[in-house]
Amino acid sequence: MAAVCVFCASSRTLDQRWLDLATETGAELARRGHTVVSGGGCVGMMGAVVDGARAAGGRTVGVIPQALVDLEVADLASDELLVTDSMASRKTLMIDRSDAFLALPGGLGTLDELFEVWTTATLALHAKPMVLIDADGFYRPLLDWLTTLTDQHFLKPAGRNLLTVVATVPEALKALESHLP
Ligand SMILES: C/C(=C\CNc1ncnc2c1ncn2[C@@H]1O[C@H](COP(=O)(O)O)[C@@H](O)[C@H]1O)CO
């Protein structure tokens, strides 16, 4: 059992399929006994992940900066809700409190969080597993561009390979669990 940090969209105007993906992710993590660590908001896919986890009997930990408590609707139903004084300290605390990271489709915030954990892993500042769910090819253009960066020697294959890319939630859980100590 691990604390798995889920990065995903906060947008309130998404297709239902993305919300369903987030609900399935939270529920599957909970069913397998993992704690969900999240950005501590109830909006968009972030809210669907924690709702899915709790509906399946799981434990959730939310980490939210004071400035976003109203904007992202702080998840008061969390088993633990940690309120930070800045965006940077939120990210640090989410990383510290987690054993592994799972990224779903999202916007700039999700990309920022994913690249923070990925770049710090390339610097060997942590060795926690990172999995990206490329559902419906959402991340394909980004992944193709990262392949170009690797081909042109801007990115080392070893760094690229620190991120495991899968297409579905069951594959993500399998990949995460195979990398956990
Ligand atoms: C100020 C700092 C970083 C700025 N960027 C962000 N860092 C961390 N988390 C962020 C950032 N911007 C938005 N977020 C959060 O990501 C979640 C998903 O957002 P999305 O845009 O819908 O994908 C959401 O909770 C945002 O608050 C210093 O490090």
Overall pLDDT metric: 97
Give, in spatial order, the strands making up the sheet with the most strands. 4-3-2-1-5-6-7
**What's the N-to-C terminus distance?**
10 Å
What assembly state would you assign to the polypeptide chains in this entry?
Answer: single chain
> Quick one: CATH class?
Alpha Beta
Number of domains: 1
Q: Helical content, roughly?
A: 40-55%
- CATH architecture group name: 3-Layer(aba) Sandwich
Radius of gyration using CA atoms only: 15 Å
Bound molecules: ligand LYK5OOP5
CATH topology: Rossmann fold
Number of helices: 7
Q: What is the number of strand segments?
A: 7
Please indicate the percent range of residues in DSSP E strands (runs of 2 or more).
Answer: 15-25%
Question: Which stretches of 5+ consecutive residues score pLDDT under 50?
Answer: none
Category by helix and strand content: alpha/beta
- Sheet bearing the most strands, described? 7 strands, parallel
H and E order: EHEHEEHEHEHHEH
Shape: globular
